[in-house]
TrEMBL record:
<dbReference type="GO" id="GO:0032299">
    <property type="term" value="C:ribonuclease H2 complex"/>
</dbReference>
<dbReference type="Pfam" id="PF08615">
    <property type="entry name" value="RNase_H2_suC"/>
</dbReference>
<dbReference type="InterPro" id="IPR013924">
    <property type="entry name" value="RNase_H2_suC"/>
</dbReference>
<feature type="region of interest" description="Disordered">
    <location>
        <begin position="157"/>
        <end position="176"/>
    </location>
</feature>
<dbReference type="GO" id="GO:0006401">
    <property type="term" value="P:RNA catabolic process"/>
</dbReference>
<protein>
    <submittedName>
        <fullName>Uncharacterized protein</fullName>
    </submittedName>
</protein>
Length: 176
């Protein structure tokens, strides 16, 4: 199990290492609330032309709103920067390489086609908000780092001292 995890981590690191020469498509990545039955290049800028639409305010901050239409239906969107130390990757199957695992369906080889540092997400019937699911997912990344981050021996000792002090205080209160 540990070996499999290390292989997966190595594959992910290889993908990221291969991004130095990739095209940066920041500002051109859009997450639309629809499904399109095409996978490949298309003259998107001819048919999809977002325009500024003001600001959307919420308790957690303001988003610069964009407006557009897709297939006659109005959309409202907002650009989101990826959290620090994160970047998005556009991947494609690497048909030039064949791995032993690909033959039995275990995994396939991928290549990095492009990278991005922000994306614009779109809503059909509501103005973008920091309470939307996508911005809230970015909050999880920060929380995940806290949960899964390493803790030094000094931090463990400090927490143990705090718990010990608190439990002594509770014992004194209950005996009085």
């Amino acid at each position: 199990m540990q070996q499999q995890h290390e292989q997966q981590r190595g594959a992910a690191e290889a993908l990221v290492r291969g991004t130095e020469d990739c095209e940066d498509v920041s500002g051109r990545v859009h997450l639309l609330p629809c499904s399109i039955g095409h996978n490949g290049r298309a003259p998107v800028s001819t048919f999809f032309t977002p325009a500024a639409g003001g600001e959307a305010s919420s308790d957690d901050g303001a988003l610069r709103v964009q407006e557009a239409a897709f297939r006659g239906r109005g959309l409202q969107g907002a650009a989101l920067a990826l959290p620090p130390r994160y970047r998005g990757l556009v991947l494609g199957k690497d048909s030039s390489r064949t791995s032993s695992g690909a033959r039995d369906g275990a995994f396939e080889d991928w290549q990095t086609l492009a990278q991005f540092r922000d994306l614009t997400y779109w809503n059909h019937d509501s103005r973008p908000s920091m309470s939307d699911p996508l911005p809230r997912c970015f909050d999880w990344l920060h929380l995940s780092e806290i949960i899964h981050g390493s803790i030094s021996a000094e931090e463990v000792a400090s927490m143990m001292d705090e718990q010990s002090s608190e439990s002594r205080g509770l014992k004194r209160k209950s005996s009085s």
